[in-house]
Design goal:
Number of strands: 5
Strand content: 5-15%
Number of helices: 16
Strand order of the largest sheet: 3-2-1-4-5
Radius of gyration: 25 Å
Length: 409
């Protein structure tokens, strides 16, 4: 994509949901995948990795189908899950096709041929996702039926064939094999989407929003949640906490001090097998620094927003504190099982999405996933220092959205 075309495309992508009437172009979306591709290898050199991703996402679609079969009407999130998995599938497919130098619009030109008993009913020479599907089709929201099951299994089979051709080297020897496999997969994807009454345009749009929420063009930190409250109800814009480890009767514990005053109770690991959880309050500091949010820290510092009783009760109350403590404990467990996320630059999306779901309904829901990732990784970065030095000085800056460590003297 040329430098002249890039700003126009970026503006277009930012306005996708503001102007939902404007159809999303196939090639436009495909170019978007290059900006959010973290594989790092150009062209076909990284194709194998992308194909593995495609295989995994189709597996996610089948998993959603299985859950719908098992739980029937109880699976109320089926529609959103299918749209998300379908959007992820489109991302990997579009990226794989681009690496193979096949524009989606070219693949779309080859879709009118029949697939088993399915007739293509979209526009010939389609250039947008909307044109790929029947013009008068209503999208009922991820309909489940035996036909959908058949289509998804057929899709999985086509992707399996592509993986077999790749692993056997047939694609390396004959690029027409890759082209044919991709066309077959796209036909199967269209057939499954049509039978399920799922909008490809909506799935692709949601995928763009999801992806930009993880890797934004222009990171927007957002205003601090307490910016309009009295100073005495605001989290300190800069704060330095001293963590000190002590031992009494053979039992280690941690105390925290702010300006020489103890903050909170002394902390132990609260489990038979030690794991240094006693330093976990560093995550509350990281949440405050990066997200501008920590009901737990507000309670410890007596900075609840009492000027607005509904905020004091709901955003700064006991339930919000429990949610934050639960997130801290949960991510701590994940970190312990993954070497405290040492040398990790990116967290699993499923973990981040689960955290984001846990805070749904609270003000911090407004913070995008990339900020949660930054907060969690920053918290573990400081936690590793505290663990190594058995204490230290932690400084947070809410204006700079930073958290730093200084070893104890």
């Amino acid at each position: 994509m040329s430098g002249a075309a890039r700003p126009s495309l970026l503006r277009r992508q930012r306005s996708l949901f503001e102007d939902a009437e404007a159809p999303l172009g196939l090639d436009e979306y495909q170019q978007f995948t290059t900006r959010t591709d973290r594989n790092g290898k150009p062209g076909t050199e990284g194709l194998g990795f992308v194909l593995l991703g495609l295989f995994g996402e189709v597996g996610g679609l089948l998993s959603a189908l299985k859950k719908k079969q098992r739980d029937k009407d109880a699976f109320v999130a089926y529609h959103d899950v299918v749209l998300e998995e379908l959007g992820d599938t489109l991302w990997y497919f579009a990226n794989a096709a681009l690496r193979a130098e096949l524009p989606l619009s070219v693949i779309a030109q080859r879709t009118p041929a029949k697939l088993d008993d399915w007739d293509y009913r979209g526009r010939t020479g389609a250039l947008t996702f909307v044109e790929l599907q029947p013009p008068n089709q209503t999208f009922g929201g991820a309909t489940f039926s035996g036909a959908v099951e058949h289509r998804l299994l057929a899709l999985a089979g086509k992707v399996g064939r592509l993986m077999e051709d790749w692993s056997s080297g047939r694609i390396a020897d004959n690029r027409d094999v890759l082209s044919a496999d991709l066309v077959e997969i796209f036909r199967a994807l269209l057939a499954a989407s049509e039978d399920a009454e799922v909008s490809l345009d909506e799935a692709a749009r949601r995928n763009i929003v999801k992806t930009l929420g993880r890797w934004p063009d222009d990171p927007d930190w957002g205003r601090l949640f307490d910016a309009d409250y009295p100073v005495e109800e605001q989290l300190p814009r800069r704060l330095t906490m001293v963590f000190t480890e002590r031992t009494v009767d053979g039992r280690p514990y941690v105390v925290q001090q702010l300006n020489g005053v103890n903050v909170g109770s002394r902390l132990t690991d609260n489990r038979l097998e030690p794991d240094d959880y006693r330093f976990h309050d560093v995550f509350h500091l990281a949440f405050a620094a990066i997200l501008g949010w920590s009901p737990t820290l507000r309670a410890l510092l007596k900075l609840k927003r009492k000027s607005r009783p509904e905020i004091d009760e709901n955003e700064d109350g006991a339930r919000a504190i429990i949610v934050e403590e639960g997130i801290s404990t949960w991510i701590f467990g994940h970190g312990v099982r993954n070497n405290d996320f040492r040398n990790v630059e990116s967290l699993d999306y499923g973990l981040l999405k689960a955290v984001h779901d846990l805070v749904r309904g609270y003000e911090v829901e407004a913070r995008p996933i990339w900020q949660w990732e930054r907060a969690i990784l920053s918290g573990f970065r400081i936690f590793r220092e505290l663990r190594y030095h058995r204490g230290g000085v932690v400084t947070i800056d809410l204006v700079e959205r930073s958290i730093e460590f200084e070893a104890p003297k």
